Amino acid sequence: MWRFAIPGTRAFCRALRLRPFAFDAWDEIVHDADRPAPARYPGLCAEGEAIERFFGVEVERLAASSLGQPRERTRRRPLNGLAINANALFASELGSLLAARSVSAGRSAGGYARNTRFEARE
Questions:
Q1: Are 54 and 103 in the same domain?
Q2: DSSP for residue 105
Q3: Per-residue DSSP letters for 59-102?
Q4: 37 plus 71 within the same structural domain
Q5: Which domain holds residue 3?
Q6: The pTM is what?
Q7: How far is CA 72 from the centre of its chain?
Q8: Are residues 73 and 102 located together in one domain of the fold?
Q9: pLDDT tens-digit profile of 80-98?
């Protein structure tokens, strides 16, 4: 699941985060997954798609905001690039997007932008 190779995985994982972190809740989801046509999976994916759309919009909004600042290489920061003070919830996708934009703006991201998994969503 962490590779997001199966369609709907990212949305499914987002929806799972809304579930109680309790054995009974997760046990039901696991047992449902063993069925030929899992009843919960499509619903969780639909729920997760809504979360994913919101998340993508927020990441784009944050990246485009005036909060983003260029950061030059220093002894403590070995990479040039864009930085933004944002909630840790957005760290991975926002960081990947800023790294990609840093490279496109002529800043070196040390190769990290090539590993980005974020895809802008409409």
A1: no
A2: T
A3: HHHHHHSTT-EEE---SS--S-EEE----GGGHHHHHHHHHHHH
A4: no
A5: 1-58
A6: 0.61
A7: 25
A8: yes
A9: 667 777 888 888 888 888 8
Q: What token pair was written down for 114? A: 């090539």
- Going by C-alpha positions, the residue among 51, 52, 82 that lies closest to residue 68 is 82
Rounded-to-integer distance, Cα 91 and Cα 86, Å: 7
The two structure tokens encoding residue 109: 């991201």
Beta bridge partners of 83: 69
How far is 21 from 11, CA to CA, in rounded Å?
18
Work out whether strand 81-83 and strand 69-71 pair parallel, antiparallel, or are unpaired: antiparallel
| CA end-to-end distance (rounded Å), the chain | 23
Q: Which helix (H) or strand (E) holds 118?
A: none
Token output for 41? 């999976």
Locate 108 and state its tokens: 């070196």
pLDDT, tens digit (0-9, with 9 covering 90-100), for 108-122: 544 444 434 444 443
Neighbours of 47 (CB within 10 A): 16
Distance CA(14)–CA(33), nearest Å, equals 17
